[in-house]
Amino acid sequence: MFKKILIANRGEIACRVIKTARKMGIATVAVYSEADKDALHVGMADEAVCIGPPPSSQSYLVAEKILQACLDTQAEAVHPGYGFLSENAAFAKRLEDAGVAFIGPRPHAIVSMGDKIASKRLAREAGVSTVPGHTEVIRNADHAVAIAREIGYPVMLKASAGGGGKGIRVARHDEECRDGFQRTTNEARSSFGDERVFIEKFIEEPRHIEIQILADSHGHVIHLGERECSLQRRHQKVIEEAPSPFLDEATRAAMGAQAVALARAVEYRSAGTVEFIVDANRKFYFLEMNTRLQVEHPVTEFITGLDLVELMIRVAAGERLPITQEDVKLQGWAIEARVYAEDPFRNFLPSIGRLVRYLPPAETRTVRVDTGVYEGGEVSMYYDPMIAKLIAYGLNREQATAHLRDALNEFYIRGVSHNISFLAALLMHPRFREGRLSTNLIAQEYPQGFHPADVVHDEPNLLIAVAAAIHRRYMDRAAKITGQLPGYEREVHDDWVVVMNGDHYPVNVQAVHGGHDVIHNGQTYRVFSEWQFGQPLFQGVVNGNAICIQVERRNLIYRLFHWGSQIDVQVLTRRAAELLRCMPVKAAPDTSKFLLSPMPGLLTQLLVNLGDEIKSDQPLAVVEAMKMENVLRAERDARVAKVHAAVGDTLAVDQPILEFE
Ligand code: ADP
Ligand code: ADP
Ligand code: MG
CATH code at 638? Predict the structure, then answer.
């Protein structure tokens, strides 16, 4: 076995690999860019080597520097994680030539699976069912249209070198096909430096289901069942689970057998994933093979009880797989949610900055948190904005979902925006609960984007009871302050009114031993908790059920965060509630007359002038943020009445740029 390995990655996956290496008694070397000098993975490893400036093209992607770090630290093997150099055959080859083991497949397998056209041909030869279509390079737009007609619309245009959901486009008719061919070619050239594009049939109502493969260098290949990753936003996975709620035993066995056949055909070694697209009739078609550890591998680890990183390391060291196909038992259900630093209410705009508070849920037998950040650390603009992966296990799908929902309640992140509300809403969605998934689900169910109204709390009474109990504690504490003016001591009443979303809920709160009874609408909620003021998580028991609600006190308001809902609550005396009804309600400002900057950034172009008549969807301005150009378009027809900002201005979020009539 290796004595020391180097991890050529960062973030949660670097931390995850280090954990297993430590368990196996293997010393670890981290590499890091200048932006990551205080990163979690650097602190966790036994040694760390700086490999250059923040952009990954100058650090994590430079094979030369990583090889040098191996030689300098005498690391015997490299785990590449996912992304970066993990599917770079030249890198694997260089390591092997230098006598450093690559913890992954051999270079030839990476080469043959790295190209979508080549891998599709190979899969077909190995007897794997592939998506109907062509495996030839498209020469030009006319050729694209001819082939698309032959296959039959709708079709999918794909960059052969594509990955990460980039370079993929659906075309439903000739015009879209022509236009799509140009765009996909451009994208392929700029993102992958390889402009080859091919066309295949677009599978309707598709599900993405993939098979985990494991192989050693002695010819043993097994599969560890499937993962369903159909919940995607723009071809990128959001929630993954194992097993799939859709597969029957026969389909699972057939997909597993084909995946194993493909792995054998390329003399695969290590962990790998064969991705399939599955149609409504459970017909499945090969998409691509990922020759590395997958982001969502923890769900497979939960239901098989195996440590995939450990097996990858053992196989790379020449060991035989310790299990056969018959030993693989799939037990229970696991679901993973990807927690991203992005604002779901602002079109999923990435968010960067310092994690002012960061309290991930406690890890238990049923909850796992794979994280690469810490409180006080930074989410940097240079890398993927994933904060953590939250994985929950249960005996069945319902239980796993419940555990995941509960764990999301405990996930406390402040300082950057995060997508926890969106994840919670997805887990609550009837289509998710019924397992009626497809890769279109998010686009179909949230056609206008995601809004606070999409997060529905199905038990508001819980929030009312907890808010009342919290306030009662606060008042009891205030009443205990010594030295109060005689005759003017604070008295604590039992009757209160909880004001939530403008509605008034009268409640009666009684102290009982160790907690409070909140009586509301003739029902009693017994609330027990050890919670103290200032603690961000209210953890307790309501009518025998454990509950965790995030609480922030903002002057007279308690802001509660639970099951993805953020709700501001006030608890008032009866009299104060009556008077509140007489207070004028401050109307939210009408911002529809403004073009606001959706993010902090630089105004690089103003495309209209004062007095211009503009049409809906017309581009109005360009704001550059995080190295991306964002074109702001008109939401309706209007006339430009005022110009509030000039080219070159640095804009704050929500700063007005234009005003319309
Ligand atoms: P990448 O390398 O970017 O992961 P994939 O070929 O795996 O590209 O495709 C990514 C996603 O695009 C899939 O998970 C699926 O949602 C969708 N997709 C790809 N090919 C098809 C197809 N032929 N029909 C329908 N959806 C597809
Ligand atoms: P602040 O008091 O900090 O100004 P806001 O009331 O403006 O906060 O809300 C802050 C952000 O909280 C909003 O921009 C939105 O992204 C998010 N938010 C609003 N409603 C909800 C909701 N129901 N659930 C989760 N997050 C929400
Ligand atoms: Mg893929």
Answer: 2.40.50.100
Are residues 465 and 439 part of one domain?
no
Question: Which ligand has the shortest distance to the CA of 236?
Answer: 1
Q: Where is the domain boundary, 283, 316, 331?
A: 331
The CATH number for 247's domain is 3.30.470.20
> Which residue has the least CA distance to atom 6 on ligand 1?
287
Distance 566 CA to ligand 2 centre (A): 7
Q: What is the pLDDT of residues 5-30, one digit of tens each?
A: 999 999 999 999 999 999 999 999 99
165 lines ligand 1 (CB under 6 A): yes
Same domain, residue pair 598 and 539: no
Percent of the chain whose predicted confidence (pLDDT) is above 70? 100
In the numeric block, which tokens belong to residue 581? 């009804």
Q: Are residues 212 and 194 in the same domain?
A: no
Q: Tell me the CA–centroid distance for residue 177 and ligand 3, in Å.
A: 22
Q: Give residues with Cβ within 8 angstroms of 146, minimum separation 6.
A: none
Please tell me what DSSP assigns to residue 243.
S
Segment (H or E) for 16: helix 11-23
Global pTM value: 0.91
Do 559 and 601 lie in one domain? The reply is no
In a domain, residue 116? The reply is: no
Co-location of 467 and 570 in the same domain: yes
Residues 141-183 pLDDT 10s = 999 999 999 999 999 999 999 888 888 999 999 999 999 999 9
List all residues 6 or more positions away from 207 whose beta carbon is below 8 Å from its beta carbon: 228, 230, 244, 246, 277, 278, 279, 437, 438, 439
State if residue 569 touches ligand 1 by the CB under 6 angstroms criterion. no
* Centroid of ligand 3 to alpha carbon of 220 (angstroms): 25
Among 307, 331, 355, give the residue marking a domain's end. 331
**Ligand 1 site, residue 290, Cβ cutoff 6 A:** no
Give the CATH number for residue 70: 3.40.50.20
Please state the atom number of ligand 1 nearest to the C-alpha of residue 203. 24
What is the number of domains present in the chain? 6
The answer to whether residues 403 and 497 belong to one domain is no
Q: What is the CB < 6 Å shell around ligand 2? A: 343, 345, 421, 452, 455, 565-566
Ligand 1 nearest-atom number relative to CA 202: 24
**Pairing status of strand 4-7 against strand 77-79:** parallel
CA distance 560 to 541: 16
- Least confident window among 17-21, 565-569, 586-590, 649-653: 586-590
Question: Residue by residue, what is the 3-state secondary structure of 347-396?
Answer: CCEECCEECCEEECCCCCCCEEEEECCCCCCEECCCCCCEEEEEEEEECC
Give me the CATH number covering residue 509.
3.30.700.30
Do 438 and 365 share a structural domain?
yes
The domain in which residue 371 lies consists of 338-456
Is the distance from CB of 223 to CB of 211 less than 8 angstroms?
yes
Q: Is residue 81 part of a domain?
A: yes
Q: Does residue 288's CB lie within 6 angstroms of at least one atom of ligand 1?
A: yes
* Predicted confidence (pLDDT) per residue in 304-347, tens digit: 999 999 999 999 999 999 999 999 999 999 999 999 999 999 88
With respect to residue 161, please indicate whether it lies within any of the assigned structural domains. Answer: yes
Q: Phi-psi bin for 330: left (phi > 0), alpha (psi -120 to 50), beta?
A: beta
Q: Is residue 651 part of a domain?
A: yes
Residue 288 is among the residues annotated as catalytic for this protein: yes
* CA 596 distance to own-chain centroid: 27
- Among 288, 296, 301, 342, the active-site one is 288
Specify whether 531 is located in the same domain as 603: no
Least confident of 29-33, 527-531, 582-586: 582-586
| Spacing, Cα 447 to ligand 2 middle (Å) | 21
CA of 115 to the centre of ligand 3 (A): 12
